[in-house]
Design brief:
Blueprint lengths: L15 H4 L2 H17 L1 H18 L4 H23 L6 H31 L2 H25 L10 H28 L7 H35 L1
Length: about 230
Protein backbone atom coordinates (compact mmCIF):
# COMPACT_ATOMS: atom_id res chain seq x y z
CA UNK A 1 0.00 0.00 0.00
CA UNK A 2 1.29 3.40 -0.88
CA UNK A 3 -0.11 4.94 2.29
CA UNK A 4 2.20 3.03 4.57
CA UNK A 5 4.79 4.97 6.54
CA UNK A 6 8.48 4.10 6.10
CA UNK A 7 10.01 1.59 8.44
CA UNK A 8 12.04 2.88 11.40
CA UNK A 9 10.11 6.14 11.50
CA UNK A 10 9.60 7.71 14.93
CA UNK A 11 5.99 7.45 16.12
CA UNK A 12 5.20 9.80 19.04
CA UNK A 13 3.12 8.11 21.73
CA UNK A 14 2.71 8.04 25.49
CA UNK A 15 3.86 4.52 26.36
CA UNK A 16 6.29 3.14 28.97
CA UNK A 17 8.77 2.30 26.19
CA UNK A 18 8.63 5.80 24.72
CA UNK A 19 9.35 7.25 28.15
CA UNK A 20 12.47 5.14 28.68
CA UNK A 21 15.76 7.11 28.37
CA UNK A 22 17.29 6.99 24.90
CA UNK A 23 20.59 5.76 26.33
CA UNK A 24 18.92 2.78 27.97
CA UNK A 25 17.15 1.84 24.75
CA UNK A 26 20.33 2.25 22.69
CA UNK A 27 22.32 0.08 25.09
CA UNK A 28 19.51 -2.47 25.15
CA UNK A 29 19.49 -2.70 21.36
CA UNK A 30 23.22 -3.46 21.25
CA UNK A 31 22.99 -5.93 24.14
CA UNK A 32 20.11 -7.77 22.48
CA UNK A 33 22.08 -8.01 19.25
CA UNK A 34 25.04 -9.53 21.10
CA UNK A 35 22.80 -11.93 23.04
CA UNK A 36 20.93 -13.06 19.94
CA UNK A 37 24.07 -14.05 18.06
CA UNK A 38 26.33 -15.23 20.89
CA UNK A 39 24.20 -16.51 23.80
CA UNK A 40 22.78 -19.56 22.05
CA UNK A 41 19.17 -20.70 22.15
CA UNK A 42 18.49 -19.44 25.72
CA UNK A 43 19.63 -15.94 24.83
CA UNK A 44 17.59 -16.00 21.62
CA UNK A 45 14.46 -17.15 23.45
CA UNK A 46 14.83 -14.62 26.26
CA UNK A 47 15.57 -11.76 23.85
CA UNK A 48 12.63 -12.63 21.60
CA UNK A 49 10.20 -12.84 24.54
CA UNK A 50 11.41 -9.51 25.97
CA UNK A 51 11.19 -7.77 22.59
CA UNK A 52 7.69 -9.12 21.94
CA UNK A 53 6.54 -7.82 25.34
CA UNK A 54 8.11 -4.39 24.74
CA UNK A 55 6.54 -4.22 21.27
CA UNK A 56 3.12 -4.72 22.86
CA UNK A 57 3.85 -2.02 25.44
CA UNK A 58 5.02 0.38 22.73
CA UNK A 59 1.90 -0.32 20.64
CA UNK A 60 3.85 -0.98 17.46
CA UNK A 61 1.25 -1.25 14.66
CA UNK A 62 0.58 -4.65 13.12
CA UNK A 63 1.36 -3.19 9.69
CA UNK A 64 4.97 -2.63 10.78
CA UNK A 65 5.34 -6.27 11.86
CA UNK A 66 3.82 -7.43 8.57
CA UNK A 67 6.30 -5.36 6.58
CA UNK A 68 9.18 -6.75 8.66
CA UNK A 69 7.83 -10.23 7.95
CA UNK A 70 7.79 -9.52 4.22
CA UNK A 71 11.42 -8.45 4.36
CA UNK A 72 12.37 -11.62 6.24
CA UNK A 73 10.45 -13.88 3.85
CA UNK A 74 12.12 -12.27 0.84
CA UNK A 75 15.51 -12.71 2.48
CA UNK A 76 14.65 -16.33 3.34
CA UNK A 77 13.95 -17.12 -0.31
CA UNK A 78 17.20 -15.41 -1.29
CA UNK A 79 19.20 -17.47 1.23
CA UNK A 80 17.56 -20.78 0.28
CA UNK A 81 18.12 -20.17 -3.42
CA UNK A 82 21.86 -19.68 -2.88
CA UNK A 83 22.25 -22.50 -0.36
CA UNK A 84 20.44 -25.02 -2.57
CA UNK A 85 22.34 -24.07 -5.72
CA UNK A 86 24.78 -26.81 -6.68
CA UNK A 87 24.06 -29.03 -3.67
CA UNK A 88 22.45 -32.40 -3.21
CA UNK A 89 18.97 -32.97 -1.87
CA UNK A 90 19.64 -35.64 0.73
CA UNK A 91 17.13 -35.59 3.59
CA UNK A 92 19.79 -35.15 6.30
CA UNK A 93 21.38 -32.22 4.48
CA UNK A 94 18.03 -30.54 3.88
CA UNK A 95 17.02 -30.87 7.54
CA UNK A 96 20.31 -29.40 8.71
CA UNK A 97 20.19 -26.58 6.17
CA UNK A 98 16.59 -25.68 6.98
CA UNK A 99 17.36 -25.73 10.70
CA UNK A 100 20.37 -23.44 10.31
CA UNK A 101 18.50 -21.09 7.99
CA UNK A 102 15.49 -20.98 10.33
CA UNK A 103 17.68 -20.15 13.32
CA UNK A 104 19.49 -17.43 11.38
CA UNK A 105 16.20 -15.88 10.24
CA UNK A 106 14.94 -16.00 13.83
CA UNK A 107 18.05 -14.11 14.91
CA UNK A 108 17.55 -11.55 12.15
CA UNK A 109 13.90 -11.09 13.11
CA UNK A 110 14.90 -10.39 16.73
CA UNK A 111 17.49 -7.82 15.64
CA UNK A 112 15.00 -6.23 13.23
CA UNK A 113 12.40 -6.00 15.99
CA UNK A 114 14.99 -4.46 18.34
CA UNK A 115 15.81 -1.81 15.74
CA UNK A 116 12.13 -1.19 15.10
CA UNK A 117 11.47 -0.68 18.81
CA UNK A 118 14.38 1.73 19.14
CA UNK A 119 13.64 3.91 16.13
CA UNK A 120 9.84 3.89 16.49
CA UNK A 121 10.03 5.05 20.13
CA UNK A 122 13.11 7.33 20.11
CA UNK A 123 13.31 10.74 18.47
CA UNK A 124 16.38 12.11 16.72
CA UNK A 125 16.91 14.84 19.33
CA UNK A 126 16.75 12.24 22.11
CA UNK A 127 19.52 10.28 20.41
CA UNK A 128 21.71 13.35 19.96
CA UNK A 129 21.22 14.56 23.54
CA UNK A 130 21.98 11.10 24.88
CA UNK A 131 25.22 10.73 22.91
CA UNK A 132 26.22 14.32 23.73
CA UNK A 133 25.79 13.59 27.44
CA UNK A 134 27.99 10.48 27.12
CA UNK A 135 30.68 12.45 25.31
CA UNK A 136 30.52 15.24 27.89
CA UNK A 137 31.08 12.68 30.65
CA UNK A 138 34.20 11.31 28.95
CA UNK A 139 35.41 14.83 28.14
CA UNK A 140 35.25 15.79 31.81
CA UNK A 141 36.87 12.51 32.85
CA UNK A 142 39.72 13.02 30.37
CA UNK A 143 40.31 16.60 31.52
CA UNK A 144 40.34 15.51 35.15
CA UNK A 145 42.99 12.89 34.38
CA UNK A 146 45.03 15.43 32.44
CA UNK A 147 44.91 17.90 35.34
CA UNK A 148 46.01 15.12 37.70
CA UNK A 149 49.17 14.68 35.65
CA UNK A 150 49.66 18.44 35.17
CA UNK A 151 48.85 18.28 31.49
CA UNK A 152 46.84 20.88 29.56
CA UNK A 153 43.22 20.04 28.90
CA UNK A 154 42.36 18.68 25.45
CA UNK A 155 39.10 18.65 23.56
CA UNK A 156 37.94 15.27 22.29
CA UNK A 157 36.68 14.96 18.70
CA UNK A 158 32.92 15.37 18.43
CA UNK A 159 32.32 11.64 18.02
CA UNK A 160 28.85 11.91 19.57
CA UNK A 161 27.68 14.26 16.82
CA UNK A 162 29.03 12.05 14.05
CA UNK A 163 27.58 8.92 15.64
CA UNK A 164 24.18 10.55 16.07
CA UNK A 165 24.20 11.51 12.40
CA UNK A 166 25.03 7.92 11.45
CA UNK A 167 22.29 6.45 13.63
CA UNK A 168 19.74 9.02 12.50
CA UNK A 169 20.58 8.43 8.83
CA UNK A 170 19.25 4.85 8.89
CA UNK A 171 15.55 5.86 8.98
CA UNK A 172 16.21 8.24 6.09
CA UNK A 173 17.28 5.28 3.97
CA UNK A 174 13.91 3.62 4.48
CA UNK A 175 12.13 6.92 3.93
CA UNK A 176 13.93 7.44 0.63
CA UNK A 177 13.14 3.89 -0.47
CA UNK A 178 9.45 4.33 0.45
CA UNK A 179 9.25 7.56 -1.56
CA UNK A 180 10.80 5.86 -4.58
CA UNK A 181 8.52 2.82 -4.41
CA UNK A 182 5.47 5.07 -4.10
CA UNK A 183 6.57 7.01 -7.18
CA UNK A 184 7.26 3.72 -9.01
CA UNK A 185 3.82 2.32 -8.15
CA UNK A 186 2.08 5.59 -9.07
CA UNK A 187 3.68 5.41 -12.52
CA UNK A 188 2.51 1.90 -13.30
CA UNK A 189 5.12 -0.08 -11.43
CA UNK A 190 2.48 -2.44 -10.05
CA UNK A 191 1.86 -3.67 -13.59
CA UNK A 192 5.27 -5.39 -13.56
CA UNK A 193 4.82 -8.63 -11.64
CA UNK A 194 6.74 -11.83 -11.06
CA UNK A 195 10.50 -12.27 -11.08
CA UNK A 196 10.95 -10.05 -14.13
CA UNK A 197 8.99 -7.27 -12.45
CA UNK A 198 11.01 -7.61 -9.25
CA UNK A 199 14.25 -7.53 -11.25
CA UNK A 200 13.16 -4.43 -13.18
CA UNK A 201 12.09 -2.75 -9.95
CA UNK A 202 15.48 -3.36 -8.33
CA UNK A 203 17.55 -2.36 -11.34
CA UNK A 204 15.64 0.91 -11.66
CA UNK A 205 15.11 1.88 -8.03
CA UNK A 206 18.39 0.83 -6.39
CA UNK A 207 20.56 3.23 -8.49
CA UNK A 208 17.99 5.97 -7.82
CA UNK A 209 18.14 5.18 -4.10
CA UNK A 210 21.92 5.55 -4.09
CA UNK A 211 21.71 8.86 -5.95
CA UNK A 212 19.02 10.16 -3.59
CA UNK A 213 20.99 9.17 -0.48
CA UNK A 214 24.11 10.86 -1.84
CA UNK A 215 22.05 14.01 -2.39
CA UNK A 216 20.66 13.81 1.16
CA UNK A 217 24.17 13.34 2.56
CA UNK A 218 25.44 16.34 0.58
CA UNK A 219 22.57 18.52 1.81
CA UNK A 220 23.23 17.43 5.40
CA UNK A 221 26.91 18.20 5.05
CA UNK A 222 26.18 21.69 3.70
CA UNK A 223 23.71 22.36 6.51
CA UNK A 224 26.29 21.34 9.12
CA UNK A 225 28.99 23.49 7.55
CA UNK A 226 26.68 26.52 7.37
CA UNK A 227 25.72 26.18 11.03
CA UNK A 228 29.35 25.87 12.07
CA UNK A 229 30.44 29.10 10.39
Amino acid sequence: MTGQAPLFRYRPADTPVHRLPAGLKLAGMFLVTVAVFSAGLPGLLASSAALAFLALLARIPASVHLRNLRILLSYALFILAFRLAGTGFEAAFLRRMLGETGTYLWQLSAVLLAGTLFYETTGTLEIRHCLAAVQLFFQRLANRLLRTFDRPEAELPDIAFLLSLTISFIPRIFEAWTDLTRAWDARGGTLHRGLSGAWKRCTVLVPLLIAKLLSVAADTDRAIRNRSL
